[in-house]
Amino acid sequence: MKKIFTVLGVVAVAAFANAQLMYEPFNFTGSVAGQNGWATHSGSTPGQVTAATGNLSFTGLAASTGNSTSVSSSNTEDINKGFTAQTSGTIYYSALVSAQNTTGTAANTATGDYFLHFGTYSTGTNPQLSLFQARVYVRKGVGTDTVNFGILNNSGGTAAPTFVATDFPINQTVFLVVKYDMATNTASLFVNSTPGSTEPTTASATNSTGTTVAPAVIDYFCIRQGGSTGNFQIDEIRVGTTYAQVAPTSASLAVSDLNKTKSNFVKNTFVKNDEITFGADAKDVKVYTLTGQLVKTASVKANGTLNIADLAEGNYMVTGTVNNQAVSQKILKN
Q1: Dist CA 245 CA 242 (whole Å)
Q2: Per residue in 249-262, pLDDT tens?
Q3: Whose CA is closest to 117, among 103, 134, 102?
Q4: pTM of the entire structure?
Q5: Cβ–Cβ contacts within 10 Å for residue 88, how many?
């Protein structure tokens, strides 16, 4: 079975070599956690991060679809969404953000507070989201009703974010692209860079002050509501292994469409209730252990489920066909 899984892995890599790891247009409303693969990992009141009608857009970036989400420093819920684990190289994410006001936003100091980042799920008896990398920070700008963005690579030591030189008015859409180099444990932030295939030669800010060792795996994207992050609208989240994948133009929508299909495959990549929930009709669904053993087969309907109560806790690979496209998704049963 290991040989079969190896072949499957080659096919999956070929299918997604030029594709984003994640695309989230928020094609739903209400609590984000529990929909399209999102889950709560901390906070005393789940369901505070919500999606509602309305979009953000940026000149040159592929047209926005779906809705958007919002966060507030008065809330506590932090949420995450998994994607295919990355073990080396560089990994990027992007998002459109707009500060609604500066109420609750950290003062213009050296620290600020962070609201977007990568994460790694630990293994063991009590797995939990940990090792937060490539954190986007925000603080009040120098001018009235402005905000300032910064980047931090990792925690540890005397870690402190590096902020960009420019302040941005509230209620203005800002395009953020973050690059994290796993080999050098360095994070870079590009603010309002030009979408397309060419990565800017110079980042708006770069940081490597955190001394915590870079993780062996990065496999989650997170939205955080910190006590001083303020109030933000967030839209069009993308994760990829190249700048072009997270800053696509309209001409590269074919790649985005493939990832919309993937994002609608498994809705709950962190399985807590013994059932995998699917966001689209899927044929030839198969569940494999990470050693290549086939443990489940099925065909499912949109919003249908597959019971995996008989499987041990741990990571699995789920494959299938959605809209005649081969898709795969890693899940964690807890």
Answers
A1: 5
A2: 876 544 445 555 55
A3: 134
A4: 0.74
A5: 11
